[in-house]
Write a structure and sequence with these properties.
- The longest helix is centred in the N-terminal third of the chain and has 10 residues.
- The protein is globular, with a radius of gyration of 18 Å.
- It has a domain of 86 residues: Sandwich (Jelly Rolls).
- The protein has a five-stranded antiparallel beta sheet, with no helix packed on it.
- The chain is built from two helices and 14 strands, in the order ααββββββββββββββ.
- By secondary structure, the protein is mainly beta.
- InterPro entries: RmlC-like_jellyroll.
- Keywords: Signal.
Length: 193
């Protein structure tokens, strides 16, 4: 059994037919698959993405924006690939009285275009985020163990023990503040416009 599927080897040589390369993404098991995104956590490449996508380099905490038909991922590099399905949903109107989740302190913006806003974020001990409103759906890739307490405006709090490598899709229309309860935490966060 070859280490890489024949289709990947052919794509590396520039010989794979378009119908075959675009089906590779469909054959791989996604971590998340819903009406907005399909997400893979991979260490190989997808020769031809069916849609525009965001690729997050897990080790570096960086991201790039790619177009449909381009290759996503690099063999041997852990990459989170977020396929942006062509099913836009407008942001919720923010009538909450709280600021939107983006922007806020400690953000390092990586990408912003007409489809997404992507940023690297670090939570610090004893430094809660401002109470904020999520007007957009979001994909969060946790880069390290992240014990985060989420507190709603009514005071209801829950601690979520995210592990390094966890990937979550959260729907818009939420209000909360976040606080790391021990150590520090970081993630790459992608909002869908």
């Amino acid at each position: 059994m070859p280490k890489y599927p024949l289709i990947v080897l052919l794509a590396a040589l520039g010989a794979a037919p378009a119908f075959a390369t675009s089906s590779l993404a469909a054959e791989m098991k996604p971590v998340i698959d819903n009406e907005r995104v399909k997400v893979w956590d991979i260490t190989e490449s997808i020769p031809a993405m069916p849609d525009d996508f965001v690729a997050i380099d897990f080790a570096k905490g960086t991201a790039i924006y790619g177009r449909a038909g381009e290759t996503a991922g690099v063999p041997g590099v852990r990459t989170v690939i977020i396929d942006l399905k062509n099913n836009p949903v407008p942001p919720r109107a923010n009538n909450s009285g709280y600021p939107n989740a983006y922007p806020r302190p400690h953000i390092d913006k990586l990408i912003e275009n007409d489809r997404v806003i992507v940023w690297h974020y670090r939570w610090f001990l004893n430094d809660p985020t401002p109470m904020h409103f999520h007007d957009k759906d979001v994909v969060v890739t946790y880069l390290e163990d992240s014990p985060l307490q989420s507190t709603e405006p009514n005071g209801k709090a829950v601690v979520n023990e995210y592990k390094s490598g966890d990937i979550r899709f959260n729907k818009r229309d939420r209000i909360h503040t976040e606080l790391v309860v021990r150590g520090s935490a970081s993630a790459v966060i992608m909002e869908l416009k």
